[in-house]
Structures are given as structure tokens and as C-alpha cells.
Design brief:
The chain has no helices and 19 strands. The protein has 260 residues and is mostly beta strands. The strands form five sheets. Strands 2-9-8-4-5 form a five-stranded mixed sheet, with no helix packed on it. Strands 10-11-18-15-16 form a five-stranded antiparallel sheet, with no helix packed on it. β6 and β7 (102-111) form a beta hairpin.
Length: 260
């Protein structure tokens, strides 16, 4: 540099990296659409939410199922609609086409009168021609039915002396419902023409005896559906009772026994 002062010069410019372009491949496979379930109705015999089914007494209960199924490409794309309940699978029958994409199907199954009261599950499955499936789980309550029968119609202790105790008399109680039961017992005094034998002279039990009373007493024993139980009775004749024929009644009532 002529006529000047030596020095250094700096540059503010930096070298720029070339732009890099990256390509990302995009891919998607669109399959045929699945069917969809738009409506399901099951036998319902109670006002509460959900489905409740009432058993029939001593005969099977038919439970009906109706459903509406749709497919965007047409109802003819539906291969079958099936119902799975317990160990049984059955196909529903098409009732009618509601439009070109929608159809109504129906079926039914049976519940035994001795099937236990409680909650039951079933599965509804729609299968397309492409073997695509749509499922819906359903739950219903099988309501309790309490019914007992007693094979004997009377207890005849025969002829007894004052102060004596009868032989044991046995009756058989059968649970004909679908609910685990306990038994409650009560009785009336034995009435003669001019005298009474108090009900407390009647005793009942399975292995140990208890005095009967006019107030219902719980047996504290379990009687399962379709099973029977034997109950024993005996009668003590008071010393001061008058000679006569005495008659009364014993009431036996089944009540639900719920397990904790």
C-alpha cells in the first residue's frame, strides 16, 4: 500500500452448504370396508336399563335376537351374521333388506329353567365375502325364579300318649327354580276341639332339631337348583293335653341365598 499504513482485512462472508433434498416414500393399502352393526335388540322383560330375561317355569325360555347390519358396498357383500352363546354358534336368518346397503337379521336361542340366575354374555359377528369380521359383545341378565315343591302333603304323627315324643317324620323339598335357596319355616298351634298343643312342641331340622314357632325361622342351609333336601320333624305331646285329634299347619318358604 503506497502512502498508507500496513494492516489486515477480514471478510464477513461464509461459505454456504449446498441444499440437500431428501425424499420420503409414502404408501398405504386400502382394503375393502368392513360391515357395521347399527342396531341390536334382545328379549327384554324388565324396565331397567339393559336386557333382562325372565325364565319360564319348568320349560325352556326362547330368547330372540334382532340386528340391523350395513355395508357401504351393498348388503350382498355380507357373507353371514352369526351368534355365539356358550358352546353354541348359529347363523342368523335375514328377515329383509331395508335398503341396498342394509339388512335385518334374526335368530333365537334357549335358556333352561334351571340355568342359574345371573349375567350372561354372547357375541354377534358379521363376516363379509372378503372374510373381514365385525363383532359386538352383548350382555343380558337371566332373572331369578324361585320355586320349591314338597313331595309330601301332610305329616301324620299317628296316635300318641301324653308326655310322649313321636318318631321322626321326613319330608323332601325340591328346588325347581334357578336360584340358590335357603328355607324359612313357621307353623301354627295344633288345634283340637277344646284344647291346643302349642306350636313350640313341633321341632324341625336336618341333623339337629329346633323348636318351630309362629315366626319364620331360617334353616341356614343351601338348596341349589334341581336339588332336593330332606327335613325332619318330630312332635312332643304335653302331659296335660286332652285326648283329641289336633290339626295345624307348617309353612315352608324358599328365599334367595346370595353368596358373598
Amino acid at each position: 500500500l503506497v502512502g498508507g499504513t500496513p494492516g489486515y482485512s477480514t471478510s464477513q462472508q461464509q461459505e454456504q452448504a449446498p441444499a440437500q433434498n431428501k425424499l420420503l416414500e409414502v404408501q398405504v393399502t386400502v382394503q375393502n370396508p368392513s360391515a357395521f352393526i347399527t342396531y341390536v335388540n334382545l328379549t327384554d322383560e324388565d324396565q331397567r336399563p339393559g336386557f333382562q330375561v325372565m325364565p319360564n317355569y319348568k320349560r325352556p325360555k326362547e330368547v330372540k335376537l334382532d340386528t340391523v347390519v350395513s355395508h357401504n358396498q351393498g348388503i350382498n357383500k355380507i357373507a353371514k351374521v352369526s351368534l355365539e352363546f356358550g358352546n353354541t354358534t348359529k347363523d342368523l336368518v335375514k328377515l329383509t333388506d331395508l335398503d341396498t346397503n342394509t339388512g335385518m337379521y334374526t335368530s333365537s336361542f334357549e335358556m333352561s329353567p334351571t340355568d342359574l340366575a345371573g349375567m350372561y354374555n354372547l357375541t354377534l359377528t358379521v363376516t363379509t365375502l372378503d372374510n373381514l369380521t365385525t363383532t359386538q359383545e352383548l350382555t343380558f341378565e337371566y332373572l331369578g325364579l324361585m320355586s320349591i315343591t314338597i313331595q309330601e302333603t301332610n305329616l301324620n304323627f299317628g296316635t300318641l300318649n301324653p308326655g310322649s315324643v313321636s318318631d321322626n317324620k321326613t319330608i323332601t323339598v325340591l328346588n325347581e327354580g334357578n336360584t340358590n335357596l335357603d328355607l324359612e319355616l313357621s307353623g301354627t298351634n295344633l288345634q283340637g276341639l277344646n284344647s291346643v298343643i302349642d306350636v313350640s312342641n313341633l321341632e324341625f331340622g336336618e341333623t339337629e332339631f329346633r323348636r318351630l314357632s309362629a315366626t319364620q325361622q331360617l334353616l341356614n342351609s343351601e338348596l341349589n337348583p334341581s336339588l332336593s333336601k330332606q327335613l325332619k320333624f318330630r312332635l312332643t305331646i304335653p302331659q296335660d293335653v286332652s285326648p283329641d285329634t289336633y290339626k295345624g299347619r307348617i309353612q315352608i318358604m324358599g328365599i334367595a341365598r346370595w353368596k358373598p
